[in-house]
Design goal:
Number of helices: 14
Low-confidence stretches: 1-41, 341-357
Helix content: 40-55%
Oligomer: single chain
Structural class: alpha/beta
Number of strands: 11
Shape: elongated
Largest sheet: 8 strands, mixed
Strand order of the largest sheet: 6-5-4-7-8-9-10-11
Order of helices and strands: EHEEHEHEHEHEHEHEEHEHHHHHH
Bound molecules: NADP nicotinamide-adenine-dinucleotide phosphate
Radius of gyration: 31 Å
Mean pLDDT: 82
Protein backbone atom coordinates (compact mmCIF):
# COMPACT_ATOMS: atom_id res chain seq x y z
CA UNK A 1 0.00 0.00 0.00
CA UNK A 2 1.36 3.45 -0.87
CA UNK A 3 0.44 6.79 0.64
CA UNK A 4 1.53 10.12 -0.81
CA UNK A 5 1.59 13.20 1.42
CA UNK A 6 2.38 16.52 -0.27
CA UNK A 7 4.45 19.02 1.77
CA UNK A 8 4.94 22.63 0.75
CA UNK A 9 8.13 23.13 2.68
CA UNK A 10 11.40 24.13 0.98
CA UNK A 11 13.24 21.27 -0.67
CA UNK A 12 16.07 19.77 1.37
CA UNK A 13 18.83 17.77 -0.30
CA UNK A 14 18.25 14.07 0.30
CA UNK A 15 20.73 12.51 2.70
CA UNK A 16 20.79 8.96 4.02
CA UNK A 17 19.00 10.26 7.16
CA UNK A 18 16.22 12.05 5.29
CA UNK A 19 15.76 9.13 2.92
CA UNK A 20 15.06 6.77 5.82
CA UNK A 21 13.49 9.15 8.35
CA UNK A 22 10.31 7.92 9.96
CA UNK A 23 8.56 9.14 13.09
CA UNK A 24 8.42 5.67 14.70
CA UNK A 25 11.28 3.96 12.87
CA UNK A 26 14.13 6.45 12.81
CA UNK A 27 16.70 3.80 11.79
CA UNK A 28 15.00 0.98 9.96
CA UNK A 29 17.19 -2.07 9.56
CA UNK A 30 17.36 -4.84 6.97
CA UNK A 31 15.20 -6.81 6.09
CA UNK A 32 12.17 -4.70 7.19
CA UNK A 33 10.04 -3.63 4.22
CA UNK A 34 8.34 -0.79 6.11
CA UNK A 35 10.16 2.08 4.41
CA UNK A 36 9.46 5.77 4.53
CA UNK A 37 11.34 8.21 2.38
CA UNK A 38 11.16 11.60 0.80
CA UNK A 39 11.04 12.45 -2.83
CA UNK A 40 11.46 15.80 -4.52
CA UNK A 41 9.10 16.55 -7.33
CA UNK A 42 8.34 20.01 -8.80
CA UNK A 43 9.80 21.68 -5.73
CA UNK A 44 7.32 19.81 -3.57
CA UNK A 45 8.29 17.15 -1.10
CA UNK A 46 6.35 13.87 -1.35
CA UNK A 47 6.40 11.31 1.42
CA UNK A 48 6.07 7.74 0.22
CA UNK A 49 5.34 4.98 2.64
CA UNK A 50 5.74 1.42 1.45
CA UNK A 51 4.17 -1.10 3.75
CA UNK A 52 5.21 -4.74 3.82
CA UNK A 53 4.36 -5.97 0.33
CA UNK A 54 6.91 -6.02 -2.50
CA UNK A 55 6.38 -2.78 -4.43
CA UNK A 56 6.66 -2.14 -8.18
CA UNK A 57 10.00 -0.41 -7.54
CA UNK A 58 11.29 -3.44 -5.61
CA UNK A 59 13.81 -4.50 -8.25
CA UNK A 60 14.74 -7.76 -6.58
CA UNK A 61 11.12 -8.91 -6.41
CA UNK A 62 10.64 -8.16 -10.12
CA UNK A 63 13.79 -10.00 -11.14
CA UNK A 64 13.03 -12.98 -8.96
CA UNK A 65 9.50 -13.19 -10.37
CA UNK A 66 10.85 -13.07 -13.92
CA UNK A 67 13.38 -15.77 -13.08
CA UNK A 68 10.71 -17.97 -11.57
CA UNK A 69 8.59 -17.71 -14.68
CA UNK A 70 11.56 -18.44 -16.92
CA UNK A 71 12.20 -21.74 -15.09
CA UNK A 72 15.64 -20.52 -14.11
CA UNK A 73 16.79 -21.12 -10.57
CA UNK A 74 19.35 -19.22 -8.54
CA UNK A 75 21.44 -22.06 -7.16
CA UNK A 76 24.15 -21.59 -4.52
CA UNK A 77 26.70 -24.37 -4.14
CA UNK A 78 28.34 -24.56 -0.74
CA UNK A 79 31.55 -26.61 -1.00
CA UNK A 80 33.06 -25.95 -4.43
CA UNK A 81 35.52 -28.88 -4.53
CA UNK A 82 35.65 -31.76 -6.96
CA UNK A 83 31.96 -32.65 -6.94
CA UNK A 84 30.64 -29.10 -6.46
CA UNK A 85 32.40 -27.96 -9.65
CA UNK A 86 31.17 -31.03 -11.50
CA UNK A 87 27.55 -30.20 -10.58
CA UNK A 88 28.01 -26.51 -11.39
CA UNK A 89 28.82 -27.37 -15.01
CA UNK A 90 25.48 -29.14 -15.43
CA UNK A 91 23.55 -26.32 -13.71
CA UNK A 92 25.19 -23.82 -16.07
CA UNK A 93 24.56 -26.05 -19.09
CA UNK A 94 20.88 -25.73 -18.26
CA UNK A 95 21.11 -21.94 -17.93
CA UNK A 96 20.59 -21.62 -14.21
CA UNK A 97 22.26 -18.84 -12.27
CA UNK A 98 24.98 -20.39 -10.15
CA UNK A 99 26.76 -18.99 -7.08
CA UNK A 100 29.43 -20.76 -5.06
CA UNK A 101 31.14 -20.54 -1.72
CA UNK A 102 33.94 -22.66 -0.31
CA UNK A 103 36.62 -22.59 2.36
CA UNK A 104 39.25 -22.40 -0.42
CA UNK A 105 39.29 -19.49 -2.88
CA UNK A 106 38.05 -20.98 -6.16
CA UNK A 107 37.25 -17.66 -7.83
CA UNK A 108 39.42 -18.43 -10.88
CA UNK A 109 37.77 -21.78 -11.57
CA UNK A 110 34.36 -20.28 -10.85
CA UNK A 111 35.01 -17.46 -13.33
CA UNK A 112 35.94 -19.93 -16.02
CA UNK A 113 32.65 -21.78 -15.45
CA UNK A 114 30.49 -18.64 -15.40
CA UNK A 115 29.80 -19.06 -11.68
CA UNK A 116 29.89 -16.13 -9.19
CA UNK A 117 32.18 -17.02 -6.31
CA UNK A 118 31.70 -15.56 -2.82
CA UNK A 119 34.46 -16.01 -0.29
CA UNK A 120 32.18 -14.68 2.45
CA UNK A 121 29.03 -16.76 3.15
CA UNK A 122 27.19 -13.57 4.17
CA UNK A 123 27.57 -12.25 0.63
CA UNK A 124 26.43 -15.58 -0.81
CA UNK A 125 23.27 -15.64 1.31
CA UNK A 126 22.47 -12.03 0.47
CA UNK A 127 22.11 -13.08 -3.18
CA UNK A 128 18.90 -14.78 -1.98
CA UNK A 129 19.36 -18.04 -3.89
CA UNK A 130 16.29 -20.22 -4.44
CA UNK A 131 18.30 -23.33 -3.65
CA UNK A 132 21.36 -24.00 -1.49
CA UNK A 133 23.17 -27.18 -2.50
CA UNK A 134 25.38 -28.48 0.28
CA UNK A 135 28.33 -30.19 -1.36
CA UNK A 136 30.96 -30.33 1.35
CA UNK A 137 32.71 -33.44 2.63
CA UNK A 138 30.47 -35.64 4.76
CA UNK A 139 32.58 -35.08 7.85
CA UNK A 140 32.48 -31.25 7.58
CA UNK A 141 28.74 -31.02 6.88
CA UNK A 142 27.55 -30.07 10.32
CA UNK A 143 30.06 -27.29 11.09
CA UNK A 144 29.66 -25.87 7.58
CA UNK A 145 25.84 -25.81 7.83
CA UNK A 146 25.95 -24.28 11.30
CA UNK A 147 28.33 -21.56 10.11
CA UNK A 148 26.00 -20.35 7.33
CA UNK A 149 24.24 -17.04 8.13
CA UNK A 150 20.82 -18.50 7.27
CA UNK A 151 19.06 -15.42 8.69
CA UNK A 152 20.17 -13.62 5.51
CA UNK A 153 18.29 -16.03 3.26
CA UNK A 154 14.69 -15.86 2.15
CA UNK A 155 12.51 -17.61 4.69
CA UNK A 156 11.53 -20.50 2.46
CA UNK A 157 14.83 -21.27 0.74
CA UNK A 158 15.22 -24.89 -0.43
CA UNK A 159 18.15 -26.76 1.10
CA UNK A 160 19.52 -29.73 -0.85
CA UNK A 161 22.39 -32.03 0.01
CA UNK A 162 24.24 -34.43 -2.30
CA UNK A 163 26.11 -36.40 0.35
CA UNK A 164 26.86 -40.06 -0.31
CA UNK A 165 25.16 -40.97 2.98
CA UNK A 166 21.60 -39.87 3.58
CA UNK A 167 20.24 -40.31 7.09
CA UNK A 168 23.02 -38.21 8.57
CA UNK A 169 22.43 -35.00 6.54
CA UNK A 170 18.65 -35.44 6.86
CA UNK A 171 18.93 -35.42 10.65
CA UNK A 172 21.34 -32.46 10.64
CA UNK A 173 19.03 -30.43 8.36
CA UNK A 174 16.03 -31.16 10.56
CA UNK A 175 17.99 -30.21 13.68
CA UNK A 176 19.62 -27.05 12.39
CA UNK A 177 17.19 -25.49 9.92
CA UNK A 178 14.04 -23.68 11.06
CA UNK A 179 10.84 -25.27 9.78
CA UNK A 180 10.26 -22.55 7.18
CA UNK A 181 13.14 -23.91 5.06
CA UNK A 182 12.42 -26.76 2.63
CA UNK A 183 14.63 -29.85 2.66
CA UNK A 184 15.48 -32.22 -0.19
CA UNK A 185 18.03 -34.99 0.38
CA UNK A 186 19.65 -36.41 -2.76
CA UNK A 187 22.46 -38.65 -3.87
CA UNK A 188 23.67 -38.62 -7.45
CA UNK A 189 24.96 -42.21 -7.79
CA UNK A 190 27.87 -41.08 -9.98
CA UNK A 191 30.83 -38.77 -9.86
CA UNK A 192 33.19 -36.73 -12.02
CA UNK A 193 34.79 -39.96 -13.32
CA UNK A 194 31.78 -42.20 -13.90
CA UNK A 195 29.63 -39.31 -15.17
CA UNK A 196 32.25 -37.46 -17.22
CA UNK A 197 30.73 -38.26 -20.62
CA UNK A 198 27.03 -38.39 -19.86
CA UNK A 199 24.58 -38.83 -17.00
CA UNK A 200 22.29 -40.96 -19.13
CA UNK A 201 20.73 -43.80 -17.11
CA UNK A 202 22.85 -43.00 -14.06
CA UNK A 203 20.90 -43.24 -10.80
CA UNK A 204 19.73 -40.18 -8.89
CA UNK A 205 18.24 -40.95 -5.46
CA UNK A 206 16.06 -38.33 -3.77
CA UNK A 207 13.86 -37.94 -0.72
CA UNK A 208 11.56 -34.89 -0.42
CA UNK A 209 12.05 -34.67 3.33
CA UNK A 210 10.16 -31.42 3.99
CA UNK A 211 8.50 -29.31 1.31
CA UNK A 212 6.18 -26.58 2.59
CA UNK A 213 2.70 -25.79 1.37
CA UNK A 214 2.23 -23.70 -1.76
CA UNK A 215 2.49 -24.22 -5.48
CA UNK A 216 5.71 -22.22 -5.83
CA UNK A 217 7.56 -24.41 -3.31
CA UNK A 218 6.39 -27.62 -4.96
CA UNK A 219 7.30 -26.33 -8.37
CA UNK A 220 10.74 -25.15 -7.18
CA UNK A 221 11.72 -28.60 -5.95
CA UNK A 222 10.42 -30.14 -9.18
CA UNK A 223 12.45 -27.66 -11.23
CA UNK A 224 15.56 -28.67 -9.32
CA UNK A 225 14.91 -32.38 -9.85
CA UNK A 226 14.20 -31.63 -13.48
CA UNK A 227 17.85 -30.68 -13.98
CA UNK A 228 18.88 -34.30 -13.37
CA UNK A 229 15.96 -35.72 -15.30
CA UNK A 230 16.87 -33.59 -18.32
CA UNK A 231 20.45 -34.90 -18.15
CA UNK A 232 19.00 -38.40 -18.53
CA UNK A 233 19.38 -39.63 -14.93
CA UNK A 234 17.33 -42.58 -13.70
CA UNK A 235 15.28 -40.88 -10.98
CA UNK A 236 14.87 -43.04 -7.85
CA UNK A 237 12.58 -41.77 -5.08
CA UNK A 238 13.68 -43.52 -1.88
CA UNK A 239 13.80 -42.81 1.85
CA UNK A 240 17.15 -41.87 3.35
CA UNK A 241 17.14 -45.00 5.55
CA UNK A 242 16.53 -47.30 2.57
CA UNK A 243 19.31 -45.57 0.65
CA UNK A 244 21.82 -46.13 3.44
CA UNK A 245 20.95 -49.82 3.69
CA UNK A 246 21.42 -50.39 -0.04
CA UNK A 247 24.47 -48.12 -0.32
CA UNK A 248 26.42 -49.91 2.44
CA UNK A 249 26.00 -53.21 0.59
CA UNK A 250 26.86 -51.75 -2.81
CA UNK A 251 28.71 -48.42 -2.83
CA UNK A 252 30.73 -48.95 0.35
CA UNK A 253 31.77 -52.44 -0.78
CA UNK A 254 32.74 -51.03 -4.20
CA UNK A 255 34.88 -48.27 -2.69
CA UNK A 256 36.48 -50.70 -0.22
CA UNK A 257 37.41 -53.18 -2.96
CA UNK A 258 38.73 -50.32 -5.12
CA UNK A 259 40.95 -49.11 -2.28
CA UNK A 260 42.19 -52.63 -1.44
CA UNK A 261 43.12 -53.18 -5.10
CA UNK A 262 44.77 -49.77 -5.24
CA UNK A 263 47.11 -50.88 -2.47
CA UNK A 264 48.20 -53.78 -4.71
CA UNK A 265 49.42 -51.26 -7.28
CA UNK A 266 47.93 -53.23 -10.18
CA UNK A 267 49.46 -52.63 -13.60
CA UNK A 268 48.07 -53.13 -17.05
CA UNK A 269 49.58 -56.14 -18.92
CA UNK A 270 49.70 -57.21 -22.58
CA UNK A 271 47.24 -60.01 -21.74
CA UNK A 272 44.52 -58.17 -19.78
CA UNK A 273 41.25 -60.08 -19.57
CA UNK A 274 37.96 -58.24 -19.57
CA UNK A 275 37.59 -59.00 -15.85
CA UNK A 276 41.02 -57.53 -15.11
CA UNK A 277 40.17 -54.40 -17.13
CA UNK A 278 37.08 -54.04 -14.93
CA UNK A 279 39.28 -54.14 -11.84
CA UNK A 280 41.63 -51.51 -13.27
CA UNK A 281 38.61 -49.31 -14.03
CA UNK A 282 37.32 -49.79 -10.51
CA UNK A 283 40.63 -48.60 -9.07
CA UNK A 284 40.60 -45.58 -11.39
CA UNK A 285 37.00 -44.71 -10.47
CA UNK A 286 37.45 -44.94 -6.72
CA UNK A 287 41.00 -43.66 -6.24
CA UNK A 288 40.14 -40.21 -7.60
CA UNK A 289 37.70 -39.69 -4.71
CA UNK A 290 39.08 -38.16 -1.53
CA UNK A 291 39.79 -40.29 1.54
CA UNK A 292 37.37 -37.97 3.42
CA UNK A 293 34.62 -39.24 1.15
CA UNK A 294 35.47 -42.89 1.79
CA UNK A 295 35.84 -42.32 5.51
CA UNK A 296 32.45 -40.55 5.50
CA UNK A 297 30.84 -43.60 3.84
CA UNK A 298 32.15 -45.69 6.73
CA UNK A 299 31.63 -43.35 9.68
CA UNK A 300 28.25 -41.87 8.80
CA UNK A 301 26.40 -44.95 7.56
CA UNK A 302 25.52 -47.20 10.45
CA UNK A 303 25.28 -50.20 8.10
CA UNK A 304 28.89 -49.88 6.86
CA UNK A 305 30.56 -51.58 9.84
CA UNK A 306 28.52 -54.74 9.33
CA UNK A 307 29.50 -54.82 5.66
CA UNK A 308 33.18 -54.43 6.53
CA UNK A 309 32.93 -57.39 8.92
CA UNK A 310 31.13 -59.45 6.29
CA UNK A 311 33.91 -58.69 3.80
CA UNK A 312 36.49 -59.79 6.33
CA UNK A 313 34.62 -63.03 7.04
CA UNK A 314 34.11 -63.71 3.35
CA UNK A 315 37.83 -63.31 2.68
CA UNK A 316 38.78 -65.55 5.60
CA UNK A 317 36.26 -68.20 4.57
CA UNK A 318 37.55 -68.16 1.00
CA UNK A 319 41.12 -68.64 2.20
CA UNK A 320 40.00 -71.53 4.41
CA UNK A 321 38.20 -73.15 1.51
CA UNK A 322 41.36 -72.95 -0.61
CA UNK A 323 43.67 -74.18 2.12
CA UNK A 324 41.20 -76.97 2.96
CA UNK A 325 41.40 -78.31 -0.61
CA UNK A 326 45.15 -78.01 -0.62
CA UNK A 327 45.43 -79.78 2.70
CA UNK A 328 43.38 -82.73 1.45
CA UNK A 329 45.51 -83.06 -1.70
CA UNK A 330 48.69 -83.10 0.36
CA UNK A 331 47.32 -85.72 2.80
CA UNK A 332 46.25 -87.92 -0.11
CA UNK A 333 49.76 -87.74 -1.55
CA UNK A 334 51.32 -88.48 1.82
CA UNK A 335 49.02 -91.25 3.03
CA UNK A 336 47.34 -92.61 -0.12
CA UNK A 337 43.68 -93.50 -0.78
CA UNK A 338 43.28 -95.47 2.48
CA UNK A 339 43.78 -92.27 4.43
CA UNK A 340 41.24 -90.28 2.47
CA UNK A 341 38.18 -90.91 4.62
CA UNK A 342 40.10 -90.64 7.87
CA UNK A 343 41.81 -87.47 6.74
CA UNK A 344 38.50 -85.84 5.91
CA UNK A 345 37.21 -86.75 9.32
CA UNK A 346 40.25 -85.14 10.90
CA UNK A 347 39.74 -81.96 8.88
CA UNK A 348 36.11 -81.60 9.85
CA UNK A 349 36.78 -82.57 13.46
CA UNK A 350 39.70 -80.24 14.09
CA UNK A 351 38.27 -76.82 14.52
CA UNK A 352 40.58 -73.93 13.72
CA UNK A 353 40.13 -70.68 15.57
CA UNK A 354 37.01 -71.99 17.20
CA UNK A 355 35.08 -73.39 14.25
CA UNK A 356 35.29 -76.31 11.83
CA UNK A 357 36.47 -75.87 8.26
CA UNK A 358 34.11 -77.08 5.57
CA UNK A 359 35.35 -80.42 4.15
CA UNK A 360 35.96 -80.38 0.39
CA UNK A 361 33.89 -82.82 -1.65
CA UNK A 362 35.66 -85.98 -2.81
CA UNK A 363 34.81 -85.02 -6.46
CA UNK A 364 36.75 -81.82 -6.13
CA UNK A 365 39.71 -83.73 -4.65
CA UNK A 366 39.59 -86.28 -7.48
CA UNK A 367 39.61 -83.56 -10.12
CA UNK A 368 42.63 -81.93 -8.49
CA UNK A 369 44.51 -85.23 -8.48
CA UNK A 370 43.95 -85.76 -12.21
P1 LIG B 1 34.98 -34.45 -0.46
O1 LIG B 1 36.38 -34.59 -0.05
O2 LIG B 1 33.98 -35.38 0.10
O3 LIG B 1 34.53 -32.93 -0.18
C1 LIG B 1 35.29 -31.84 -0.59
C2 LIG B 1 34.53 -30.57 -0.29
O4 LIG B 1 34.34 -30.41 1.12
C3 LIG B 1 35.28 -29.35 -0.75
O5 LIG B 1 34.36 -28.43 -1.26
C4 LIG B 1 35.93 -28.83 0.52
O6 LIG B 1 36.08 -27.43 0.50
C5 LIG B 1 34.88 -29.16 1.55
N1 LIG B 1 35.45 -29.31 2.88
C6 LIG B 1 36.17 -30.35 3.34
N2 LIG B 1 36.51 -30.14 4.64
C7 LIG B 1 35.98 -28.94 4.99
C8 LIG B 1 35.98 -28.18 6.19
N3 LIG B 1 36.58 -28.61 7.30
N4 LIG B 1 35.33 -26.98 6.20
C9 LIG B 1 34.71 -26.54 5.07
N5 LIG B 1 34.67 -27.23 3.90
C10 LIG B 1 35.29 -28.40 3.87
O7 LIG B 1 35.00 -34.56 -2.06
P2 LIG B 1 33.91 -34.32 -3.19
O8 LIG B 1 34.13 -35.41 -4.16
O9 LIG B 1 34.02 -32.93 -3.69
O10 LIG B 1 32.48 -34.60 -2.51
C11 LIG B 1 31.66 -33.55 -2.03
C12 LIG B 1 30.34 -34.14 -1.55
O11 LIG B 1 29.66 -34.76 -2.66
C13 LIG B 1 30.53 -35.23 -0.50
O12 LIG B 1 29.57 -35.09 0.48
C14 LIG B 1 30.30 -36.52 -1.28
O13 LIG B 1 29.78 -37.55 -0.46
C15 LIG B 1 29.28 -36.07 -2.33
N6 LIG B 1 29.31 -36.87 -3.56
C16 LIG B 1 30.50 -37.07 -4.19
C17 LIG B 1 30.53 -37.85 -5.33
C18 LIG B 1 31.82 -38.11 -6.06
O14 LIG B 1 31.85 -38.99 -6.90
N7 LIG B 1 32.87 -37.38 -5.81
C19 LIG B 1 29.35 -38.42 -5.83
C20 LIG B 1 28.15 -38.17 -5.16
C21 LIG B 1 28.15 -37.40 -4.02
P3 LIG B 1 37.44 -26.80 -0.06
O15 LIG B 1 37.68 -27.46 -1.39
O16 LIG B 1 37.09 -25.36 -0.17
O17 LIG B 1 38.51 -27.10 0.91
Amino acid sequence: MLSFTPHLSKPTPPTPTTLWSHPTHPHPTYPTKRHHFSQLTNNRKLSITAIDAAQPFDYEAIVSNQLFQSNKLKIAIVGFGNFGQFLAKAFKRQNHIVFAHSRTDYSHIANSLGVSFFQDPNDLCEQHPDVIVLCTSIISTEPVLRSLPIQRLRRNTLFVDVLSVKEFPKNIFLQVLPTHFDVLCTHPMFGPESGKDSWKDLGFVFDKVRIGEGESRKSRVDKFLDIFEKEGCRMVPMTCAEHDRYAAGSQFITHTMGRVLEKLDLETTPINTKGYETLLNLVENTSSDSFDLYYGLFMYNKNAMEQLERLDLAFESLKKELFGHLHEVLRRQLFGKVEEAGQRRVLSKLPKNGYALPAPSSDAVKSQNN
